[in-house]
Structure formats: structure tokens, C-alpha cells
Amino acid sequence: MDRIYVFFVGSAGSGKTYLTKAFSDYLEFKRIDHIIVNLDPGAGNLPYSPDIDVREWFSIEDVMEKYNVGPNGAQIIASDLIATKVDDIIDEIDLYNATYVLMDTPGQMELFTLRASSEVLIGILGRNNCVSVFLFDPVVSQQAPGFLSLVFLYSSAIMRLNIPQIPVLSKVDILPEHTVKKILEWSKSPETLHDSISRERGLSPDLFNLLYDLGLFRPLIPVSSKTGDGMDDIYEQIQEIYYGGEDIERILF
Amino acid sequence: MDRIYVFFVGSAGSGKTYLTKAFSDYLEFKRIDHIIVNLDPGAGNLPYSPDIDVREWFSIEDVMEKYNVGPNGAQIIASDLIATKVDDIIDEIDLYNATYVLMDTPGQMELFTLRASSEVLIGILGRNNCVSVFLFDPVVSQQAPGFLSLVFLYSSAIMRLNIPQIPVLSKVDILPEHTVKKILEWSKSPETLHDSISRERGLSPDLFNLLYDLGLFRPLIPVSSKTGDGMDDIYEQIQEIYYGGEDIERILF
Q: What b/e string do you get for A160-184 counting C-beta neighbours within 10 Å, with b at 16 or more?
């Protein structure tokens, strides 16, 4: 049976860990075999019990002490150390008979996307078996420039990870309904976003259309880890990417 | 006399702290009054003595203890706490007679650019008095997709901070000369980057040209904090932005 690796990726505080749990609960409910891997050496209390946990090998506190660095330096070193543990992680994954392997990535997105560990890990697991759920932070997304800023961040992750990505609007339960509607509208229509943003900045409408045409700009799935909204849609998109046949090109990113 | 706030912004490990020091040394040499503000609550040992330091008010360790969170949660909280100390920071800055205020930003870029503290701080200091030096990580920049990923990260920061930005290629002393040349060539010519990247990904040349036309893609200044290379160029670009008259529009980002 094929195994699919689902990476939850997004900026600090966007809700990766709780979404990992919510999606796990959803798979549990559907009786789909899966495990959770915590790749975040700096995680505090997790709301789920990881089946595999990089903190077994090292934690930020250990690294601070061992390398005599501050918390920042330790986070960089710890993220890079993941690359040295990839064989161990895969050995542990192989002990399970899981169809889905959910990967909760390090708190700060750039420590995962921009550093070697993601490249090494995805390279070994195989790009064709990996997909990423990319979280748009609900607070930053409320303003048009903030939303566009996240579109670029998403593009940045696409270039770097080079695996199919499913963009979601996180924590919709904390936003008023009309705000969710507005953000989803931006994500569906480059013209609407351009209209909202051009009052402030002199950006060309071509930019928005081009990003859209290239698939760097796609309709967001609204999700809530609290209510479970959107889990079905994430699941369906993963299915479509892996088993949708001719559709795969269309949703490559 | 006008006061200019220079923010050093870039992904974790790109070399912000050492560049802050190198630029300070350069200003010192030119006998230009300046101070350094450390905005990074998670900094370890700094290579300079900050005139103002957010760690006076709180550190990651304090926050972990006080809020009972792990290192990740603490970094988010600490970054957000900066917003509550902006008045104190400005009061302290006012005690100095500095023309340049160098701001060393939090280790993880997204903790600064995507969260409230940058918005509040820049809003109060005044967008017109602020400029950012954006560091392209030399390791990530070596491969064309990595470089493009950083171009998008740069675009993301531009959208979010909305102040003029000066992009630099950091730590050129660790790269072979021909690699530096290649990266600079990409940054000067959208066609060259497209040629290097299109072998791997199906991206349209229009994207590169458009980003270039919008100023989201600009020639990088090669810099080294070790040799001091490029400090003159950064200084000149800041001068051009603030005193270049008609040129200001051209280099808005």
C-alpha cells in the first residue's frame, strides 16, 4: 500500500500543531491508519501523543547547553540536526503500518523550509509521496497586504519544497464570518485582491493574474481545528492529488 | 537632524547580527553618530554591545517560565511583547543623539515581519524614517529554486513592512567567487534566472520579468561582515533613498 506523508507547514503561531491533531482525529474517525511525527524540537506541551518525536533525540534545551548558544542559535542547530536523524525517523515509521504519516514541522516555518532538514527528509521519503498543507495565518490574512504577504510566503515554500501544496485558511473560528468570506474571495479572484490592495500600493493587476495562472495563488480551504471544519476538504484534495489521475497537473502546487 | 532607522531583516541564520555589527563598525569609522538596538529577545552572546536591548525587559527564558510554554511559544510571546515596549524603546532612543539607529531584528524573520511588533514599531517611528536591509542567505541562494524562494520571501517582507528595502547577498566570503557571480547575475537579470530554473520547473518567463518590473526583484549588494565588503554600498543606497530626490520612487522597495 502506498504511504502518504503530509507536512503541516506555516508561519509561527499559524496553528500547525492543532491542525495536525484535528486531521489525525478526522482520520481516526474514518478508521484510516495513520501516525503522527513531531519534527519540532522546540515544541512545548503537545495536544496529541506523537508516535515518533524528534525530542526523543534532542530538545532545544539540550542543544543550548551542549553547544553553549542562546535559544535562537539552538533552534537553528536543532532544526539542522533533524537531517542527521532522518534514517532513524524512517526506521521508526517503518515499524507502523500507516497509510498516512502526519508531519508536524518546526514552529518557525523558515527553520524547516529554508534549511537542509526539509530537503534531506523529503528527498529520502520521495517527493512523489509527500504533500504539504500550508496554513495561512488568520490574523495576518485579514488585511489585503498581509494576505498578499502570505501568498508570497506560500510561493516561497513551493519553490523550496517542490511538493504539491494545499493552502488552507487556519482558525476560521476566531474570525467574523464576513472576514472569512472576504479572505476566501481574495483567494479565489486575483481581481478582488488587486482592488483591495491597489488603494495602498501601486501593484499591477498582471502580477495577481500571473500568480494565479502559475498556481501560486489558489482558493483557500477554510479550516478550524476547534470545530473540525475543512478536514474533509483537505482529505479530498490529498486524494485528488494522489489518485485523481489527469487532474494532478492542475493542482501540482 | 533627521534620524534614520535601519532594520536588518532576514531568515534565521542569514547573518543579521553580524551585519549589524559590521555596519556599525563602518559608521564608527566614518564618525557617524549611531546606536544599536537589539530587538531579539532570543539572542545569545552578541558580538556588539547594544545601546538598547529588549532583553533588559524580558528574555525567552523568562517568558518560558512565566507563561509555562516551550521555546517556540516563548519566542512568539516574546516577539509580541516587543509591541508593548515600543514607548520605552523610543524613550531610550531619544536619550541619544544618533543619526542612525540600527535595529537587529528577532532571529526568525517571520516573528518580526508577520507579527504585530513590526507593524506597531514602524508605525510609531514613521514609515518615512525607516529602511530595511534584507539579507539573502548565501547557502539557500546557491541553487536557483532556493534563490527564487528568497525572492518571494523578500516580496513577502516588502508587502508586510511597507518600507524601502535594500536586498543584500550575505556572507559572500563563504561562497566561491563564481557562485557569487552567478547569484548576482540572477539578481540582475530575470532572463538568466529563468534559464537556470526552467530546466526544473515550468515557470513562465513573464513571472520573472514582472517581478523585476515591480521592483520585487533587484540587484543584490554582495556583503561580508568579515571583510567589511559592501558596507559602503549599503550606506550609499540608504543615502539615495533618503536624499536622492527624484530617485526615491525608482528604489521604493
A: bbbbbbbbbbbbbeebeeeebebbb
ipTM of the predicted assembly exceeds 0.90: no
What does the pLDDT read at residue A199? 62
Measured between alpha carbons, how far is A229 from A56 in angstroms, rounded to an integer?
A: 32
pTM of the model: 0.90
* Residues A47-69 pLDDT 10s: 999 999 999 998 888 998 999 98
Is the minimum CB–CB distance between A114 and chain B shorter than 8 Å? yes
Rounded Cα distance between A40 and A53, Å, is 8
What is the C-alpha to C-alpha distance for residues A121 and A136, in angstroms, rounded to an integer? 23
Burial degree of B201 (CB within 10 A; 0-12, 13-18, 19+): middle
Q: Where are the beta strands (DSSP E) in chain B?
A: 4-10, 34-38, 52-53, 100-104, 130-136, 165-169, 221-222
Nearest to B231 by CA among B46, B79, B21: B21
Candidate from B12, B45, B153 with C-beta closest to A108: B12
Of A45, A72, A207, the CB nearest to B42: A72
